[in-house]
Amino acid sequence: MNDNCHVVVILNWYGRDDTVACVESVLYGSPDVTVLVVDNGSFDGALGEVSDLERVQTLQLPHNLGFAGGMNRGLAFALEAGATMVTILNNDTLIPPGAMRVLHRHAESGAAVSPTVMYRDDPTRVWFGGGAIDMPDGYPHHIAPQELQGCVDGVRETSVLAGCCITATSDTWRRVGLFDERFFLNFEDSEWSLRARAAGVRLGVACDARIFHAVSASFRGAASTLGTYYFLRNGLLFTRIAGAGTTARMRFIRRFSPLRRRQLGVRDVIRGGIVAGFAIGSYLLGRFGEAPPFLQRRAREWAVESSGDLALER
C-alpha cells in the first residue's frame, strides 16, 4: 500500500459473491484507489477470489468482530500503512465509475461524506440521501426523499451518515476515532456521526455521487434474529448517548419490540420475547459487543427449523 493514497476498506462476512462484485466495481471505475478486503472470520473464500487482483490487499481476521470491530481493523491497517483518505464500504454495494473520485474531492476539506445511496434492485429509488436524529427520543433515521433539502456545491448537510459508505481523510478518522465496538452491529455509524459533529467535523451527503446498495443482504437466517437483538439493544444504548431520557427508551422498546409485529404465531411470540428479553437485559447489565452465545445458538436452531418449515410448505 503506497503512501498518499485513497484506500477503500470492504468488509466481508459470508458474502463472497457480493464482495467480488463490489471489488470489481470499485477497481473498474476508480483507478486512483487501493482496495483492502477484510474477511470478518468467515473464511468463505472471498479473499482467495480477489487476492491476485491488482490494487487489492487482503486482511484475514480470526473470528467475527462485528461491523464495528471488523471495519476498525481495516481502518487501523489502512491508516498505519499511510493512507491519506479512507472509505469504508459495505460489500453488498456497487460503485459506478467516478463516484469515489467525487467522494474524495468532497472529503478533502476535512468533511466526512456519504454518497447518495440507491436501492440496488431499484436504482431509481433513494435509500439514503440524508439523516436526522429525532429529539427528544434520540432516534436516528433516514430523511424521506421528498423531504430532503437542496445541495450546495454538490453536498447536502446531514446529521448522520450511512455506514454503508463513509469517506474521510486520515486526519479526520484519527480526530474522531474509530467505531465504538460496544455496538458490534447497528447504530455504530450514527454514534460515530455524533462524535464527528462534536469534534467539529462537517457531515455531508454527496448529491453528485451515487452508489447502489442491496439493503440488509447480510440479515438472513440466524443473522435475522441476531439483527433484531442488536437493533433493540444498540438502539437503547444510542438513545442514551444522544441524550434521550428513560421515557424515550421506553417508547423505543414499544415501537421496535419484535412482539409488535402483526400476525405472530405462538412460536413467534415466544421467540420474540426471548430476543427482546436478552436485548433489554443486555442493555441494562451493560453487556455489549457480540450477542450472548446462548442466543446465537438459539438463532441458528430457529433458522434451521424455519428452513424445514418452508420445505414442508413446498
UniProtKB/TrEMBL annotation:
> Does the UniProt entry include the keyword Glycosyltransferase?
yes
> According to the entry, what is the taxonomic lineage of the organism?
Bacteria, Bacillati, Actinomycetota, Actinomycetes, Micrococcales
Coiled-coil regions, chain positions: none
Q: Where is the Glycosyltransferase 2-like domain?
A: 17-129
Q: Which GO terms describe its molecular function?
A: glycosyltransferase activity
The record's similarity note reads: Belongs to the glycosyltransferase 2 family.
Task: Name the keywords, alphabetized.
Answer: Glycosyltransferase, Transferase
> Pathway it acts in?
Cell wall biogenesis; cell wall polysaccharide biosynthesis
Under InterPro entries, the record lists: Glyco_trans_2-like (IPR001173), Nucleotide-diphossugar_trans (IPR029044)
Q: Which Pfam families match?
A: Glycos_transf_2 (PF00535)
Q: What is this protein called?
A: Glycosyltransferase 2-like domain-containing protein
This protein's superkingdom?
Answer: Bacteria
